[in-house]
Write a structure and sequence with these properties.
Chain lengths: ~230, ~425
C-alpha cells in the first residue's frame, strides 16, 4: 500500500489527495492551487524580522477563535507600492492557502499600490485559488483584514492619519445591538436567509422594522462572498 | 528527526472511532442474503423462511452477547436511529403521564444532543450534567438531577472523541435505588439509556450488569456493515415508534428488515466479542507506546480524556500552537488518516463540545488530534506516525505566530477581546 511517488510531493500527488471530513464524510473540494499554496506557502516569515525590514505590521484573530493572522509589509514611500509582504498564521488549510495567495497577489509584478491592494476582495482571492468550500471562506477573510490593519499602521507611522480607514460597525437591530458586522460574519458562517440569520443572531425578532435592512445586508454579503 | 521529504507515504488508518472496514468473514456471512436468501422475512414460502430464520438467529446471537431476551433486540438503521428512537420513543410514551424531564451529559454524541433540542420544543426540560476535566460524568450529579418527572437518563458508555469510559453500571444501580426509594416499579420511569457504539467490542455489554433499560450499538464501529444498528429495550419498557408502516420489529421499526446487514452485524459482534480481551490488550499496548513516544518527540502536547479509564484504542491529545485541520491535511499527505476537534473540520465550524466541556480552552480544541487504532494497526503503522508527526508539527509551528503556555485556563481565554470583530467567538453568539 506504499506510494513511493510521495517523495518529494508533486502537484499531481496533491490533486489526488482530497480530504474527507471525518464526521460528515463530506469531500472538500480543495483545488490543486489551494493544495499547492497549502503545502508550499509563499512569502512566509520564518525568522524574526530585522528592525527595519518592514514598515508596519497588522494582526487579527485570536487563538481561541482558531485563526490568528499576522502580516508585515514594506512599502516604497515614493510609489506606495507594496515591495514586500510576509505573514504567519495559526490557521487551517484554507487560511494558509488563502493568505499565501493574497501575498502573491499583492507583491507580484513589482507590487500593487496600497490603494489597489486594499481593493482586493475575498472573492478575488477565491477566484485565484480556484474556489474554496463555501463555509471556509471565513478563513481567507482574515488575510485582507490583517493587511488592512497593517496598512492603517503604516499610514499612522508615516503621518498620513487622514488615510486611515476604520471599518465602522453600524447598529442594525437596536434592541439586540446587532451590527452590520455581525450580519456579515453570520453570512460567512452560512446564514444565507432571514430564517437562518434569526436562528443565529435573533436579529429583528424584537425589532421587526429592521427586517428589510437585514434582508438587504444578507443579499449584499452573499453577493460579496459567494458571488450569487 | 527525518525531514518530511525523506519520508515515504504509507497508508495508516487511525480513525476507527469514525468507522471500521467490514471484516471479510462478515462480508462472507452477508453475501448469500443479497442473492440466494433474498426473501422478505414476512413471507411464508421457503425463500422467505430462510431470511426469517437468519433474522431470528442474528437476534438470538446478539441477545446472548447482551444477556438479554431476543425479543428485547430491535434492529434499526444505525446508531443515530437507535439513539433517536430511545430518546423520542421514551419521551413521547411517558412524557404526558409521568413528566417532561430528561437527563443527559454535555459530552453526548449529537445523535443524543440534537433529539433533546427537538424535545425541548415539545415541552421537555433537559438537564445536561457537567463532566470533570477527564470527561467523566458523576453518579452523584445525575442522582441529584433526578426529579419525580424525570423519564429518561441518557449517558454514553464511552466517549467517541476522548475515549473516556463512563460509570454506567454505577449510574444504573443508583437509579434503581432511587426508584425503589421513590416507590417506582422497575418498569416505571425513569429509564437509563446508554449509547454503546464506541464501547462495543471493547467493553462488557451485559445489560443486566450494566443495569440499563435501553442500549444502542451499531455495525459500522465493530467491523460490521454501515446502516444497521440495534436498540436493546428491556421487556416492559414501551416506546412510541419513529417509523410506522408494516409493523416489523415488534411495531417499533417498520420497514422490511435489512437481512444482509443484520446478519453482518450479528457476525461482527460475535467476532468482536470473541477477540475482545486479546485485542484490548494489543491495542492498549500500541496506544500507550504511541502516546509515550509522542510525548518524547513532540514538545507541548497534552492528553485529552482520562489517563487510564479510557477505550484501549483511543488517543486524543492537543498540540499547542498549531491548528488541527492543517495538521490533519499534512498527515493525510503521508497516508495517515486521523481526526481533529478543530472548528475547521466541523460543518458548523464549532470546536469540539467534548474538549470544551472538560474545561479546556478553545485553543486546545482547535489543536486537538484523535487517533483511534484498530484491527489492522501494527507497530510499523505507529512508527510511521511517530516519524511523520514531529516534522509536521515543527513545520506548522514555524509558521504559527503563537506560543501558548501549557497551563492555559478556559476562563482566561474567554475574556480575550482579540476576535476578528472584537467580540466573542461565533459559536458563543447563539
Amino acid at each position: 500500500m506504499e506510494d513511493t511517488n510521495a517523495k518529494p510531493l508533486t502537484t499531481s500527488d496533491m490533486q489526488t489527495a482530497d480530504v474527507v471530513n471525518p464526521h460528515t464524510k463530506q469531500k472538500w473540494a480543495y483545488s490543486p492551487i489551494v493544495k499547492e499554496h497549502f503545502f508550499h506557502p509563499k512569502n512566509l516569515l520564518l525568522e524574526e524580522p530585522a528592525p527595519d525590514q518592514f514598515d508596519a505590521r497588522g494582526t487579527v484573530g485570536s487563538p481561541a477563535c482558531g485563526d490568528v493572522m499576522d502580516i508585515w509589509i514594506k512599502v516604497d514611500p515614493a510609489t506606495e507600492r507594496v515591495v514586500d509582504l510576509k505573514w504567519k498564521t495559526f490557521g487551517c488549510g484554507s487560511a494558509i492557502a488563502a493568505t499565501s495567495m493574497f501575498s502573491v497577489m499583492v507583491t507580484e509584478n513589482d507590487g500593487l499600490t496600497l490603494t489597489d491592494a486594499l481593493k482586493i476582495k475575498p472573492q478575488d482571492i477565491m477566484e485565484r485559488l480556484g474556489g474554496l468550500p463555501n463555509r471556509k471562506i471565513h478563513c481567507s477573510v482574515l488575510a485582507d483584514k490583517a493587511f488592512r490593519k497593517a496598512v492603517n499602521n503604516y499610514f499612522h507611522a508615516v503621518g498620513k492619519h487622514d488615510r486611515v480607514e476604520v471599518e465602522g460597525a453600524r447598529v442594525i437591530d437596536a434592541r439586540m445591538n446587532i451590527t452590520d458586522k455581525d450580519i456579515e460574519e453570520a453570512v460567512l458562517e452560512g446564514a444565507l436567509n432571514l430564517e437562518d440569520m434569526q436562528k443565529k443572531l435573533k436579529v429583528g425578532v424584537g425589532d421587526p422594522a429592521a427586517i428589510p435592512e437585514i434582508e438587504q445586508l444578507i443579499r449584499f454579503y452573499k453577493e460579496k462572498y459567494f458571488g450569487a | 528527526m527525518k525531514s518530511l521529504s525523506e519520508i515515504e507515504k504509507r497508508i495508516v488508518y487511525l480513525d476507527h472511532a469514525a468507522t471500521t472496514p467490514t471484516h471479510p468473514d462478515v462480508v462472507a456471512a452477508m453475501l448469500p442474503y443479497f442473492t440466494d436468501h433474498f426473501g422478505n422475512p414476512s413471507g411464508l414460502y421457503e425463500i422467505s423462511r430462510d431470511a426469517s430464520e437468519a433474522l431470528s438467529s442474528a437476534r438470538e446471537s446478539i441477545a446472548q452477547i447482551l444477556h438479554s431476551r431476543p425479543e428485547e433486540i430491535i434492529f434499526t438503521g444505525g446508531g443515530t436511529e437507535s439513539d433517536n428512537l430511545a430518546l423520542f420513543g421514551i419521551a413521547r410514551k411517558y412524557g404526558a403521564k409521568w413528566g417532561k424531564h430528561i437527563i443527559t451529559s454535555q459530552i453526548e454524541h449529537h445523535a443524543v444532543l440534537l433529539p433533546t433540542e427537538v424535545l425541548k420544543k415539545e415541552g421537555f426540560e433537559i438537564t445536561e450534567t457537567t463532566v470533570n476535566e477527564h470527561a467523566e460524568v458523576s453518579v452523584e450529579n445525575i442522582i441529584a438531577a433526578l426529579r419525580p418527572e424525570t423519564v429518561l437518563i441518557s449517558i454514553m458508555y464511552a466517549n467517541n472523541e476522548v475515549g473516556t469510559i463512563e460509570p454506567i453500571a454505577e449510574i444504573g444501580a443508583a437509579i434503581q435505588r432511587w426508584k425503589k426509594d421513590n416507590g417506582r416499579k422497575p418498569i416505571d420511569p425513569p429509564f437509563l439509556h446508554t449509547d454503546a457504539c464506541q464501547a462495543a467490542g471493547a467493553l462488557n455489554l451485559n445489560v443486566d450488569e450494566l443495569k440499563v433499560d435501553l442500549l444502542t450499538l451499531n455495525g459500522s464501529k465493530i467491523y460490521g456493515p454501515k446502516g444497521v444498528g440495534i436498540l436493546y429495550v428491556r421487556r416492559g419498557v414501551q416506546l412510541v415508534p419513529l417509523i410506522v408502516g408494516g409493523g416489523q420489529e415488534n411495531r417499533l421499526r417498520s420497514g422490511t428488515e435489512n437481512v444482509p446487514a443484520i446478519v453482518g452485524l450479528a457476525r461482527a459482534l460475535e467476532i468482536a466479542t470473541e477477540k475482545r480481551e486479546t485485542e484490548n490488550a494489543r491495542l492498549a499496548e500500541l496506544r500507550n507506546y504511541l502516546w509515550a513516544e509522542i510525548q518524547v518527540r513532540v514538545p507541548k502536547v497534552i492528553l485529552n480524556g482520562h489517563p487510564t479509564n479510557r477505550l484501549p484504542n483511543n488517543l486524543n491529545f492537543t498540540i499547542l500552537d498549531i491548528e488541527g485541520e492543517a495538521a490533519l491535511l499534512y498527515m493525510d499527505e503521508f497516508g495517515i488518516s486521523l481526526s481533529t476537534g478543530s472548528a475547521c473540520t466541523s460543518t458548523s465550524l464549532d470546536p469540539s463540545h467534548v474538549i470544551l466541556a472538560m474545561g479546556k480552552p478553545y485553543e486546545y480544541a482547535h489543536g486537538s488530534l484523535r487517533m483511534t487504532l484498530g484491527a489492522s494497526t501494527t507497530r510499523e503503522d505507529i512508527d510511521h506516525v511517530l516519524e511523520v508527526l514531529p516534522p509536521v508539527v515543527a513545520l506548522l509551528r514555524s509558521i504559527s505566530p503563537l506560543n501558548l503556555s501549557m497551563d492555559q485556563k478556559q476562563e482566561n481565554i474567554a475574556a480575550h477581546s482579540a476576535f476578528v470583530e472584537d467580540g466573542v467567538p461565533h459559536w458563543m453568539k447563539k
